[in-house]
TrEMBL record:
Residue intervals passing through the bilayer: none
The protein, known as: TerD family protein
Origin superkingdom: Bacteria
GO MF annotations in UniProt: exonuclease activity
Domain BRCT: 223-301, 337-415
Amino acid sequence: MSLVVPSFDMSAMADYAHDWALVDVETSGLMARRDRVLSVAVVTMGPDGEQTGEFSTLVDPGCDPGPVDVHGLTRERLSGAPAFGQIAGRLGAMLQDRVLVAHNAQFDYDFLAHEFARARLHLPVTRRLCTLALNRQVDPPTRDMKLGSLAAHYGVPRTRAHDALDDTRVLAGIFRATLREAARLDLPLPFVTCPPRQDPQFAPQPPKTPCAYRNPGRMEPGGRLVQGMKIALTGQTATSRAELVARSVAAGLNVMSSVSGHTSVLVTNEPASVSAKARRAAAEGVPVIDEHAFLRLLGAVRSGTPHQAAPPNSRSVPVVPAPRNTPPALPAVPTPGTPLAGRRVLVLGGSHEAASAARARIVELGGSAAVNLSRSVTDVVRLADGHADRRLPKIAGLGLPVHDEAWLAAPASAAPPSSEGAERADAPRPVPPLVLPRGGVVDLPVSSPGAELFTWRATASWASRGRCAVDVVAFVLDEDEQVTFDEDFVFYGAPENPAGTVRLLTDGPAEQSFDLSLGALPPASRRIVVAAAVDGDATFGEVGAVQIAVSPGHGAAPLARATLDAATTERTLILAEFYRRGPVWRFRAVGQGYDYGLDALARGYGVDVES
């Protein structure tokens, strides 16, 4: 098949010349550990951008095909199709030694990984690339980043949406055009090493029923157990661990797999134990009892206080500590206004404090502060040492205006320059996201019954710096600002909570996202905190600004975004929070940094991180 987007020789550009395998799967649902592949297509492409192969097939999943109204694959159409195990060998040969490319690539990768595992075969993929993440870096002037919108923008014909082969052919055309744009902007490709952090060994366990009672706190010496108490067990026990857990849960207790300052009691037959739980209990002053005493107390557990849903007219707003280090402000504009409305400004050079102050000023003037060079950048501010930034030649080639720091004191109001290569005049124009300042809040709209069940996506991105590895995490908290159970701490080692309502996606070395099914969370879940932590001894002063954006699902245009800076020494940064206000969920950009690491933040929310 000849693709409309002309091929161009990438073999001379080492960073963009690879063997590629572009993939699309249609599935019976959205959860790879539960649902099945119904059809799969692969288009292979060489380093020169030329197509080298193609394969597609329907797959008999041996189960209900799910939403037929979406993919059109009925039981009758799938009857007689091969099982996945029958085509896995051919698929594997096409994927071998190639970079897997897909739109929302973790979705396709996870489904293939689970299907290969069911067939007891190894998925031969060592790296993947997400075209959705790549286009977020390029940031073309489209109304959203969905496949259809990108196809229209890049001039790639699309005949059958949700057909795996047609979608893969379309993806190939989009990918070639996007690679050209990435090369023009000198953007690093967002490769993800596989198996990624969403590794099958971390597949969630069957949904765990949250404890129905609030944590009443520590058990008093000689006192009784109370429903809702957080219980941890360590060491050998005479009664099987499974039975102890089952009896504890039946009594209304909350069994945790770690110890924190919120643990009510630790059960152990070895008071001198040096286990991690015992050490943490001693450090936190958590009461310790033996198995015999625990079993006796289990026979007379006192009634606890049930979790309550947020009051319908509640107007409470979670309190976030005020920043300890506020960046110095630039000179104020004499007259109020928004002279930078519609502009997206990239800051180069300067100390972290100076760059942070410049970005805050951009937002104050109605603009949006960028963290990377992209198609949407309209202006560049060059601070001290900014002349050494390697992107300046590209910026000059793109014709972007470059200003000094004084420009931010009183920039002239002007319409932002039009984007080169914008869409046709009759195409829908992108709606700019709401730019939130630090502490800014926006209600997440509910447009129709059941719309609250949509999945919201929170995406954090930053400038890629080789020394600074950043992890993005989430805590699902109850009304007492605690995780209900350990699995409500979602991070790279446990990238999905048991119900699948909060899920981490790794889209590249400088971008991570959370998919949040807010409407499916239990009433006790009042708030979700999204935070970032720097590995090792590096600080956010070295990482620089982090952008957080919230969108109604993958590929959708952002509803709102914020560019956040911590002060120089912080190692942990609370990026944002989702919280209930009556029947509505709200999103707030936080930007609060702390000098301590992720382990201390996690313990504050009731879960211990083993080092």
